[in-house]
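Module 6 notes. Inverse folding takes a fixed backbone as the condition and produces residue identities as the prediction. Think of it as a translation problem where the source language is geometry and the target language is the twenty amino acids. Below is one complete input and output pair. Work through it position by position during the lab.
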C-alpha cells in the first residue's frame, strides 16, 4: 500500500506541474499535451510512453485499493467486537482515509470521461486540452466537483505520506516531526496547485 501510494504521489507531482502550464496560455499548454503523446519518439512509437505510464498508474491504483481492502479485513478480524467507548484520537485526515479513497476513485472515472474521452464534456475538442479544461471548468458544478476532489487528495496525502514513510522504515524519533512537515507541505502545495486551475477559469484569469 505504501509503495503504490508513493507511485501515485509521484504522478500527482508531475501532473500538477503540467497543469500549471495552463497559466502560460493555450499554445504552451496544447504543446505540452502534444508532447505527452510523442515523448520518446523516434525510439518509441507514438503514445507508447503515455500508455506505459497509464498502465503503471492503473496498476498502482488497483494495488492500493486491494491493499486497503485487505488491511480493512485484517482490522475487523483483529477486533471483531467494537470498543465500548470510542476516543477519536486520530486526525480528521486519518479518520476519513477510507471515504476519501472512495471519493477519489469515483472522481478518477469522472475526470477521464471529462478531459480524456470527452464523454461528459459537451464542448470537448480532440487535441485541444486547453480549450477542454476551460470548457469544463466554466461549468461551476464541474469546477466545484474538481475542487472537492482535490481537497480529498490533500487530506489523503497528508496522512498517506507520513504513514507510508513509517511503513517503509523512514520514520524515527528524530525524523517524525520533519516527515509530518513534509507531508503537510506536500498536501498544501499540491492541493493549491490543482485548485488554482478551476479557480482561475471561474474568475476569468484563464479563458
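Target side of the pair, the amino acids:
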Amino acid at each position: 500500500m505504501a509503495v503504490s501510494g508513493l507511485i501515485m504521489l509521484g504522478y500527482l507531482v508531475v501532473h500538477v506541474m503540467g497543469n500549471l502550464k495552463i497559466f502560460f496560455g493555450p499554445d504552451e499548454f496544447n504543446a505540452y499535451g502534444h508532447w505527452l503523446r510523442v515523448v520518446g519518439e523516434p525510439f518509441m512509437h507514438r503514445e507508447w510512453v503515455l500508455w506505459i505510464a497509464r498502465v503503471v498508474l492503473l496498476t498502482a491504483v488497483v494495488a492500493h485499493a486491494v491493499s486497503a481492502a485487505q488491511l480493512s479485513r485484517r482490522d475487523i478480524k483483529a477486533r471483531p467486537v467494537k470498543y465500548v467507548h470510542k476516543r477519536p484520537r486520530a486526525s480528521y485526515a486519518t479518520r476519513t482515509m477510507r471515504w476519501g479513497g472512495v471519493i477519489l476513485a469515483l472522481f478518477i472515472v469522472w475526470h477521464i470521461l471529462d478531459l480524456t474521452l470527452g464523454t461528459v464534456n459537451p464542448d470537448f475538442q480532440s487535441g485541444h486540452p486547453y480549450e477542454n479544461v476551460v470548457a469544463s471548468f466554466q461549468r461551476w458544478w464541474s469546477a466545484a466537483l474538481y475542487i472537492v476532489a482535490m481537497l480529498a487528495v490533500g487530506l489523503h496525502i497528508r496522512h498517506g505520506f507520513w504513514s507510508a514513510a513509517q511503513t517503509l522504515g523512514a520514520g524515527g524519533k528524530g525524523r517524525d516531526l520533519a516527515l509530518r512537515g513534509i507531508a503537510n507541505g506536500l498536501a498544501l502545495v499540491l492541493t493549491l496547485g490543482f485548485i488554482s486551475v478551476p479557480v482561475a477559469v471561474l474568475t476569468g484569469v484563464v479563458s
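Reference fact for the lab report: The CA atoms of residues 29 and 182 lie 29 Å apart.
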